[in-house]
Amino acid sequence: xxxxxxxxxxxxxxxxxxxxVEMRGRVTAVFGPSGAGKTSLxxxxxxxxxxxxxxxxxDGTVLADTVKNFxxxxxRRGIGYVPQDLALFPHLSVRQNLLYGRNSQAAGPAFTFEHxxxxxxxxxxxxxxVTELSGGEKQRVALARALLASPRxxxxxxxxxxxxxxxxxKIIPYLAxxxxxxxxxxxxVTHDRFEALALADEMVVLVHGKVMQAGPVAEVFxxxxxxxxxxxxxxxxxxxxxxxxxxxxLATVNVNxxxxxxxxxxxxxxxxxxxxxxxxxxxxxxxxxxxxxxRLPARIISLxxxxxxxxxxxxxxxxxxxxxxxxxxxxxxxxPGETITALIKTPAIHLVPR
Amino acid sequence: MxxxxxxxxxxxxxxxxxxxxxxxxxxxxxxxxxxxxxWPGKSLVETLVxxxxxxxxxxxxxxxxxxxxRRGAVGGFLHDRLDLDIxxxxxxxxxxxxxxxxxxxxxxxxxxFEEVNPRLEQIARxxxxxxxxxxxTITVPLAAxxxxxxxxxxxxxxxxxxxxxxxxxxxxxxxxxxxxxxxYENVQLGQDAHAFRLLGVSVVLAFAAVWCSxxxxxxxxxxx
Amino acid sequence: xxxxxxxxxxxxxxxxxxxxxxxEITVFAAASLTDSLKPIAATYEKTSGxxxxxxxxxxxxxxxxxxxxxxxxxxxxxxxxxxDALANRDLIDPATRKDRLGNSLVVxxxxxxxxxxxxxxxxxxxxxxxxALADPQAVPAGVYARAWLEKLQLWPAIQPKVIxxxxxxxxxxxxxxxxxxxxxxYKTDAAISKNVKIACEVPRTDGPDIRYPMALVKxxxxxxxxxxxxxxxxxxxxxxxxxxxxxxxxx
Lengths: 354, 224, 251
Fold this sequence. Notes:
The complex is a heterotrimer of chains A (about 350), B (about 220) and C (about 250). Chain A is α+β, with helices and mostly antiparallel strands.
């Protein structure tokens, strides 16, 4: 899919939302701190808000063009929306909620009622009233309702924000199923980096209404464009890996041929993304005995000063980033090309199931 | 209770109900416009809508007399072109009842509309629903409790309306006599027994209408 | 807050306080006497120093109020029936009862009316759809009109068209506004309004005997002062004013 947002200018309470970006991913995460204007952006795309200036084009169809004073009304945009508070209709049953958008003449692919309810496992909930559902059930019903209206694009506002950890891990597979089975492009707004990592392949970082960076997820995490992004993104090393075995709560993960020990995630998924924060990597010259399970020989590729710290790029069999202090760097006399040992504590490796 | 007294009661209930039904579409439209959005002249309309509630009813009646009389802006047109009289007919009763009770409906409906989460309406639009569909399938059902409560309140007010009615309709048993007019007239004529009987009916009707209204304004209507 | 109290107190000073000097005489009078009684009262006030307070309305309404204990000094009715009703309840002083004025009835139509109404019979025509009368059941003007039409045996045909009003001036106003086709009022009323014209007069011989009795109300707050005013009302001087307004003088 291609969602083109050009010349967006929307004055908000504390700042102006200004966006100029093209999104092409299957799942794009709009990532940023609370109050960055993310929900306003979604409202704009769905046609629920008007901007001072905007050009919005989805897969070649122009949805809004303020220069030509043109704007497709919401009901004809074919854009599904799952808001943060889900907005299920309280006076209708689950079934009635699901069927509400059934007759819309949206241009997206049509899914059968049975297919959608099966994938999201909401068949037993049909006759119930909306207020009787649990948090997770409401989420799935809201998703199904949006899907059954045959959208061309699905917008999700913080889909996991109000769920506890256990529930989050249960919902992510459903979202992944929506992505894989129904193949509808999705735009997810989130402030949780792990949500973004779990689902998205592309990312747009929005801070104070401005796009700081846009691109593949791994790219943004690995090479944040500026300090603001880096601070918000906060994870320097992201590598895909595969869990080989799980023993007593510890998982052995193969990352590019290197075996790492990490805490086993709750789900049974084998394919994971290994996340390691730069602050959690300790660099050592000699190999003393320590409690750390992950001791990796690594060659220093580059050193980049960042304020009081130095960002060290290493090759440990896979690209690994560490953040150490300047004095430490000077004291241990790090130079590019040298081989040292990188220590990563087991709990510091965060595994995100894919 | 004599036959003519029952006729008066029946007429009063009938005209009050009819006036409530007639003001419903206009009342809901106005309540909706006042609940959502800001538009030029909104405060003026808000004030005008509240006027019949606070002005002396006879003053409102006087205004209606001027506008709908044979020489008035609207009444003149109706009389000359359509040979239709409003003043001194049952239509004047309908008019007086409608004008005096509409503000109650509008205020209740407006509050009810304001309590409907606009997000729900927005999501309905993303699901392909047009303005009317959203209004009738989402907004109105969720505001139904307040709307019905407002209608019953308006009905109760219409049942008891006197000041404006006496200005525009006159007291003609069988044609324009309402319960409140009949009580007044009977007291004027010294027919206290009649007056008290009608008073009793009036109290019962008002009590029933207001009690039902409270019933709706207290309970929530959600699908269970 | 203090400003609030100052304003309230200042406002209270404007409230009418009972005067220690002049006497207030309360007169309940028929609506048709409104315009003639005002100048008469003004003259009396200048010479006597007393103040006249009027309550104008349908005689039937006023009688009812007196029966309910309203503090009237004088009752000036538009027909005998209402005065008799009070007399029967011993609410007026029969010794002071005087009968000085008469009136005649007329049929009036709106100024711009094109209906030709020359006699009572014309009122039964189809194109005369609405006729205003002061309530024919109680208000003297209406009762007189009804008596006249019953005498001519036209009442059954006319009654369905009747719009009853509060009092005779309301009937006049209804005709003046154009909302009815015709009305029956006193000749003295027709003279007051510029928006009506007289279509035909009810001859004294055909019409009912209209009398305006006046009397002192028993238990009046100001009996002496009221008696003096009552005498003034029956005097030559007052009579001239009444005649100017079109009333007929008796005796």
